[in-house]
Specification:
With 178 residues, the chain is of the alpha/beta class. It has helices at 30-41, 50-58, 91-100, 112-120; strands at 4-11, 15-17, 43-49, 68-72, 84-87, 105-109, 126-132, 140-141, 149-160, 164-177. Helices cover 22% and strands 38% of the residues.
Length: 178
């Protein structure tokens, strides 16, 4: 079965962007590039919600190259010219189906709403974070209320340039607990 990884850069207080969706506080470095390149070799699919797609698309990037791109939206219409497939069905059912298909890993890109639905369905296998040394105070949260705790096991942790810390957790076998 394929691995589903939810990952992002986040502030120390758990935000992935400012309230206006800006990410001007992110620090990019060679070692972040190396971690990212290694991760991209392990996946062949990216799933994201419409809000993340809107932000990613605003820079002229409509799809992540070299991987299959799915955007969950009930309002966007499919574009036959696009490299992105719009999915209007239930995200958890769709990702559960993807997990059973042959292939490499699946990356949950961006915001907490899609990840929330996938956590609730027990579909997230890993959480990878590039934690930045900043407290934003408010913004777009990485995690929404899960309705209980989700136990994680540390796989990797290392300091990276700019005072950041990279951590990778595996969702514990028993998953959710209360």
């Amino acid at each position: 079965m394929r691995t589903v990884t939810y990952g992002a850069a986040c502030s120390l207080d758990g935000f992935i962007a400012r309230s206006d969706h800006s990410i001007d506080w992110l620090h990019w470095s060679r070692d972040v590039g190396e971690i990212t390149a290694k991760f991209w070799k392990s996946i062949d699919t990216v799933v994201m919600g419409r809000k993340t797609y809107d932000v990613a698309g605003s820079g002229g990037r409509k799809a992540y190259p070299g991987v299959k791109n799915y955007v969950f939206s009930r309002t966007l219409k499919p574009d036959p010219e696009s490299e992105v497939e719009i999915v209007s069905e239930d995200a958890a059912k769709f990702v559960a189906k993807l997990k059973r298909e042959p292939g490499k890993g699946i990356c949950v890109m961006g915001g907490g709403e899609l990840a929330h639905a996938l956590f609730e369905a027990g579909l997230i296998d890993e959480v990878g974070l590039n934690v930045h040394p900043i407290l934003l105070g408010k913004g777009i949260p990485m995690f929404l209320d899960a309705g209980g705790s989700i136990e994680l096991q540390l796989v990797e942790c290392k300091p990276i340039d700019g005072g950041c810390v990279y951590v990778l957790y595996r969702v514990a076998a028993n998953g959710n607990s209360t």
